[in-house]
Amino acid sequence: SAWLPTKPKLFVKMIQKLSDSQLETLTIVNMAASALSLVGSSFIIFCYWYFKNLRRFAFKLVFILACSDAAYEIANLLGDPSDGSALCYVQAVLVSYFGLTSVLWSGVIAYTVYETVISQNGHVSVKIKAFHIFVWTTALILTALPFTTNSYGSAGSWCWITNDQGNISVTWRLVQFYIPLWITFAFNTTVYIRIVQVMRSLFGRQSMLESRQKEMKVLRRLRLYPLVLVVCWISGTINRIQNFIAPDHPVFVLYLLHIMFGSLQGFFNSLVYGFTASVKTAIAEAFQRCCGMCGVFLQRVEQSKALLTEGEGKGKMKALPSIPPAKI
Reduced to 3 states, what is the DSSP secondary structure of residue 276? Predict the structure, then answer.
């Protein structure tokens, strides 16, 4: 396609096995899914900014996650820059950094759920500074490491850690993204299983359930966010395992699912966030206020029209010539 940037095809065997049309398809799918996710992430950011009653600690974490998602999606929307260009390096660094921060913030959310439900810690919000230091610093260090071997560049249909350096490229991809991802996978899954176990035990004790009904409602919603990470990156994990086992036989469908679901993380987060009762209530109230203002405005317009019509009618009556009485 003419509108997609071109670049030299200097890829390892598994990328060379994909046709140009398949690579172009991956680029288009990546950009389309990222655009959809950017809309979803922007929705979360807007809700947090506009509805002050939603600015609780749980949704503050989701807001930060949405900001990471949005930055990652903007990087994907840069398309397929030419290998070695400044734009390619910018995309590679942004994808590395914010892709990892999104994963780590998902882990932070899972940890928050664990502390609240399992450890009964009601003051986990005081750790927010520690969370920031952990996420942003860890991502910064791991993103800087590939610079030591000049490993950022073309990665197929986008720029990331290049495919050209063989084992070095594989090592950096594992260290910079996939090992933290898999560790977060395991932690989030463990937390999810423990939450289900605790909730089931609480459902068996009606009195305790009633006393913590509000808290349980929040936790049912919050536990979905770590699950989104698993759904979005399980296909990417399968694809990378297949790449390691059989690098000469890439599976295009796995690449397609990898790109599509990985880029849709922000969209799925917005679906989970947007369908909560508190958000729907806030939006409904905003529409009611808006409609109420529109109703008042329309009512005043109709009143103005009526007064104007009445005034014009009176003016016309005054302008009519007097008719003399008929002579009999």
Answer: coil
